[in-house]
UniProtKB/TrEMBL annotation:
This is YCII-related domain-containing protein. PANTHER family: PROTEIN YCII. SUPFAM superfamilies: Dimeric alpha+beta barrel. Residues 4-85 form the YCII-related domain. Pfam families: YCII. Belongs to the YciI family. InterPro entries: Dimeric_a/b-barrel, Sec-metab_biosynth-assoc, YCII.
Length: 93
């Protein structure tokens, strides 16, 4: 199944983002429990995040991203999707 690296860039309205963060993290935890989300975390500067997914195709991935509470709250200013082929590490079989 294809894997994808997703980079979020956040808007500068930190209080708005923090208000939605618990729902965002609960949503991501559900995707992780399903095995769809492989990892996720914010950049140290807290201006964006990196997420790694395993999805049937990019359309399925976009469905997951569109359901993220951060998307509905409009706290993501940019989303970059790149299909990823990891060569080493825990997810390589």
């Amino acid at each position: 199944m294809p894997r994808y690296a997703v980079e979020y860039t956040y808007v500068e309205d930190v209080p708005k983002r923090h208000a939605v963060r618990p729902r965002h993290r609960d949503y991501l935890a559900g995707l992780a429990a399903e095995g769809v989300l492989l990892l996720a975390g914010p950049w140290a500067a807290d201006d964006g995040a990196l997420l790694a997914f395993e999805a049937a195709d990019e359309a399925a991935l976009r469905g997951y991203l569109d359901a993220d509470p951060y998307k509905a709250a409009e706290v993501i200013s940019e989303t970059r999707i790149t299909e990823w082929n990891p060569l080493l590490g825990a997810w390589v079989s």
